[in-house]
């Protein structure tokens, strides 16, 4: 973070599974936090933590799939 120190930030994390146009599967994890400016206004900030390939392995009876990182 340029303007903040991680010790002063309480991020929330979201992870998203998605498929590219070429049918490859990925997982992206993003951190979100609120920055308070000197004038007291708030600004939502975000930073992608990682994006990784994911390989779908199997689908169980309930329709859930197990995966591995490629």
Tell me about this structure:
By secondary structure, the protein is mainly β. The protein is built from no helices and four strands. It has strands at residues 12-19, 25-36, 42-59, 65-69. Strand 3 (42-59) and strand 4 (65-69) form a beta hairpin. The radius of gyration is 17 Å and the shape is elongated. The two termini are 29 Å apart. The mean pLDDT is 81.
Largest sheet: 4 strands, antiparallel
**Helix residue percentage:** under 10%
Mean pLDDT: 81
Rg computed from alpha carbons, rounded to a whole number of angstroms: 17 Å
What's the end-to-end separation, in Å?
29 Å
Low-confidence stretches: none
The strand order across the widest sheet is 1-2-3-4
List the helices and strands and how they pair.
Blueprint: E1 12-19, E2 25-36, E3 42-59, E4 65-69
Antiparallel strand pairs: 1-2, 2-3, 3-4
For the structure shown, list the relevant keywords.
four-stranded antiparallel sheet; 70 residues; mainly beta; 4 strands; elongated
Summary, kept brief:
The protein is mostly beta strands.
């Amino acid at each position: 973070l340029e303007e903040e120190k991680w010790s002063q930030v309480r991020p929330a994390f979201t992870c998203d599974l998605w498929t590219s146009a070429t049918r490859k599967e990925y997982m992206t994890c993003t951190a979100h936090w609120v920055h308070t400016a000197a004038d007291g206004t708030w600004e939502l900030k975000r930073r992608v933590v990682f994006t990784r390939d994911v390989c779908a392995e199997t689908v169980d009876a309930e329709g859930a799939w197990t995966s591995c990182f490629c």
